[in-house]
Amino acid sequence: MKKFVNDPKNFVPEMLEGLALAHPDTLRYVPAYNLIMRADAPRTDKVSIVQGSGSGHEPAHVMVVGRGLLDAACPGDVFAAPPMDYVYETTKLLATPKGVLLLVNNYTGDRMAFDMGKEMADADGLRTEILTVNDDVAVTDSLYTVGRRGVAGNFFVIKAVGAAAEQGAELDDLIRIGRKVNDVTRTMGVGLTACTPPAKGSPLFELGADEIEFGVGIHGEPGRERRRLTDADAIVDALLDAVVPDLPYQSGDRVALMINGLGGTPVSELYLLYRHAHQRLAERGIRVGRSYVNEYCTSLDMAGASLTLVRLDDEIETLLAAPADAPVNPF
Amino acid sequence: MKKFVNDPKNFVPEMLEGLALAHPDTLRYVPAYNLIMRADAPRTDKVSIVQGSGSGHEPAHVMVVGRGLLDAACPGDVFAAPPMDYVYETTKLLATPKGVLLLVNNYTGDRMAFDMGKEMADADGLRTEILTVNDDVAVTDSLYTVGRRGVAGNFFVIKAVGAAAEQGAELDDLIRIGRKVNDVTRTMGVGLTACTPPAKGSPLFELGADEIEFGVGIHGEPGRERRRLTDADAIVDALLDAVVPDLPYQSGDRVALMINGLGGTPVSELYLLYRHAHQRLAERGIRVGRSYVNEYCTSLDMAGASLTLVRLDDEIETLLAAPADAPVNPF
Amino acid sequence: MNGTELVVRTIAETAIANEKYFGDLDSVVGDGDFGYSLARGFEKLLDGWADLDRTNAGSFLKRCGMTIASRIGGTSGPIWGTAFLRAGAAAGEPLDRARVAAMLRAAIDGIKARGQSDVGDKTLLDALVPFTDSLEKSGDLATAARAAREAAEATSAMVAKRGRAAYTGERSRGSVDAGAMAVAVIAERISDVWQPEVTGS
Amino acid sequence: MNGTELVVRTIAETAIANEKYFGDLDSVVGDGDFGYSLARGFEKLLDGWADLDRTNAGSFLKRCGMTIASRIGGTSGPIWGTAFLRAGAAAGEPLDRARVAAMLRAAIDGIKARGQSDVGDKTLLDALVPFTDSLEKSGDLATAARAAREAAEATSAMVAKRGRAAYTGERSRGSVDAGAMAVAVIAERISDVWQPEVTGS
Ligand SMILES: Nc1ncnc2c1ncn2[C@@H]1O[C@H](COP(=O)(O)OP(=O)(O)O)[C@@H](O)[C@H]1O
Ligand SMILES: Nc1ncnc2c1ncn2[C@@H]1O[C@H](COP(=O)(O)OP(=O)(O)O)[C@@H](O)[C@H]1O
Ligand SMILES: [Mg+2]
Ligand SMILES: [Mg+2]
Ligand SMILES: [Mg+2]
Ligand SMILES: [Mg+2]
């Protein structure tokens, strides 16, 4: 897969510089820490919400910095958690009397960086909390890992705590809300092609013309298993079979349904997937209350998609529907 | 390139069905004519705005149906202009006392279908006007063609006339505004890979690992010429060299700058392209007043991008900034 | 009427059978949808086949033209629809060599008007006109079909001046026009299946 | 101090020289960024090389550890940073075989604590521990480097229980761990360039 890139080492900073140039009124860029923050942050009247994670998942997370969403994002290089001092310095810059909420997708590297960064910030007397997101049902045997990964469902946690923070919620209430959303959110992804990191210049793994990677991670890690490419509806059925029984989502539930593109799949195909998922859920008595069809958390240029369900209650639904502004896909 | 697809013949209707299921409150789907219309259309107090064109360019045009944008879109199959009777029936359904504005991207097939559809609607006594968009500077020798193609710049025409129509503008004023926007809009695209139409199942053309298609069309038609793949900044320079002198855009101008993804290129790369374009324009004394970095008019799963400039004046800028709602990318 | 029906049905079946071939031809310098558009449109024509108006050849062809124009997308719907409509308008009894030639001329004029195109632009006209000339002269379908194929193959040397292929300018040289080749293939199939009593006259 | 400097510089240069190799190893069942992360981080260490605190081996290593932990992203920053910090804390005079072994043990304990990992999880520990064992026993760097390589190659038979490769479960078998192989390659380079007077004692 060919890419638009200059020196691969500058891929992330050049992207961030472009982002800042395109949104000068709302965003501020601090090159030293790959930091993208709201131009009006930190605001003393609210908790600051910060997310790190590797780059290559755009719009997550640098492009969901904005009103009712993140106050800042400090990504690492492509697929690499941010170094600890990005987390530390970002936390210092975003500190407010109400505190800083650090959102972490559940990966070894990210957790270490945020744990270490938080320790240092706490030693400075700052008020911080970490909230871990782990919505990926693809990881079955959590004995051998740090547990389930945080993937596209992350958006719902950001959206909910972002809305609540905007309304003045306290740090402990944000933790409660974030945990609650994470607890009712499940995701499963499928890759049709491998992605190509700019610095590597070639696909991360080989996938035959009739193979798909079922349960693929958002870092191009191979997934649960390799399967034969089938038609789109059968793929949706397989994703639902992994996601629905996991919580489980049951007849009578109201859900948010997200079909998230992994970077190389056009939105036309995402809506085609959405159609079947919506219909199949209806057959199971599960009603879609809110729909999300777009790219939210990608894996560079990988062709593929993930399916996320969130079980809604009135509080979550209200927070998801609250106003938000971001460079892309605020809803 | 592998795709999410069932029977390729159902690619377009299944996508449209998904779109309608995801947005039941705002959109209505009429399967007989591939028609996606606003749930509240036709509104007697405004001109209806309709666009056709082939499918495969999503979000154009079915996903920009909404408040302040299109009232309806009736696409044909992938890369095929809609049949004449889609245009005719859609026009009848959308008819209002203030009239129907038919937006047409400048291609032989689209023009014929809309000319014939309009003739039939006019014979029924309906009030209609056609507005043709042709922003693509890649087509140099217009003697041999129907002239320049309509590509991503189309979005700006839709946005401007959509906003004006929402404010109650009359049909002739919409024609004036649309022509004015089209006249100051120029686009040039580049393809890194070929796209794969679902019904064909294989790439539309072959492109070497180090080749790019400069001036590529949004239907996968080969472009102006094949060039060597260079770094991203050099590609942006080449696009600007084609676009800027064409109007020309000059020192002191205020412009909207769009970097549009062609379907397979992630938004990270689009912002990287944006960065250099913004900086180079600044060097030429051209100030970016509004930024658009996303997918607006794609070519299925093609990796690639186009660059569009619109010279702004107060009227255009106000219309572009007016509120709008659509399934994706309303701004 | 039986001859007319057979010819139209053969056109439809040939278009459907050659969907992939025609599409591949259109993908060299076009957008690859020509085969798909024709096949889907003619499928719809065959779907409603039993209900078509069969009063006479003229009304039958006009009905076909309406269906094609309103059901085939892309450039081909208006172009092929117009051709059928015009041929139908020029139909009459007896359906002899001169009448068939007149119907084909009417179709050609319709395409030229609708497409603002002419012989030499590298379109289906570049096979349809030689086919018509030959049929008029020889009265023999097989001879005319050969003329159509030769002419279709000769489009390879031409630069496209109309249609999507025209955007590529000089680069359109070196590949045959999809529409012209479709005309040649259809002509061959018609010459295979139809032994008209009329063409000898 | 010269020995310590040489060792750290060799680690840095080896990591930079093997960026592609280490990255390719990480892309088999990982995410391919290991080579890039190490190379970029150690480049930054070399950038500020002249200004590093050189009071003694301990403070030098701690300064390196801080830089690595705060400049390398991914899992490797905290893991390698912690290793250097702990080794620095265990440094002292004389820098003899026992001391070097103690420093390596401290680094290993730091990695285990930071990574919640142990020998057998298919990580760099599976090369670093055998290397340390062998160095302690033989006092010979070349022997220890051979032990590291053998152990790194043996990770191929293991199933990953930590790090990103662990998500693939059984499928992680059949390829060596990138971190373990990096330890082996670095050990070999150190053994090539460093002839310490101390290790014999
Ligand atoms: N203006 C025109 N006049 C006559 N024939 C045309 C014209 N433009 C294209 N054609 C014919 O139509 C064929 C392509 O048809 P189709 O693929 O349906 O069109 P498109 O995809 O460009 O809308 C060409 O091969 C050519 O023979
Ligand atoms: N929990 C852990 N403890 C010790 N070492 C680990 C751990 N997780 C991974 N590693 C080592 O780190 C290497 C991968 O590093 P890196 O690519 O930077 O991590 P990632 O991309 O997964 O964040 C692995 O090959 C392994 O040797
Ligand atoms: Mg990584
Ligand atoms: Mg077409
Ligand atoms: Mg075509
Ligand atoms: Mg890695």
From TrEMBL, chains A, B:
It comes from the Bacteria. Signal peptide: none annotated. Transmembrane segments: none annotated. One of its GO terms (molecular function) is kinase activity. Residues 7-331 form the DhaK domain. Pfam families: Dak1. InterPro entries: DhaK_1 (IPR012736), DhaK_dom (IPR004006), Dihydroxyacetone_Kinase (IPR050861). PROSITE patterns: DHAK. Keywords: Kinase, Transferase. PANTHER family: TRIOKINASE/FMN CYCLASE, TRIOKINASE_FMN CYCLASE. This is Dihydroxyacetone kinase subunit DhaK.
UniProtKB/TrEMBL annotation, chains C, D:
The keyword Kinase applies. Pfam families: Dak2. Residues 2-192 form the DhaL domain. Keywords: Kinase, Transferase. This is DhaL domain-containing protein. It comes from Actinoplanes palleronii. The lineage of its organism: Bacteria, Bacillati, Actinomycetota, Actinomycetes, Micromonosporales.
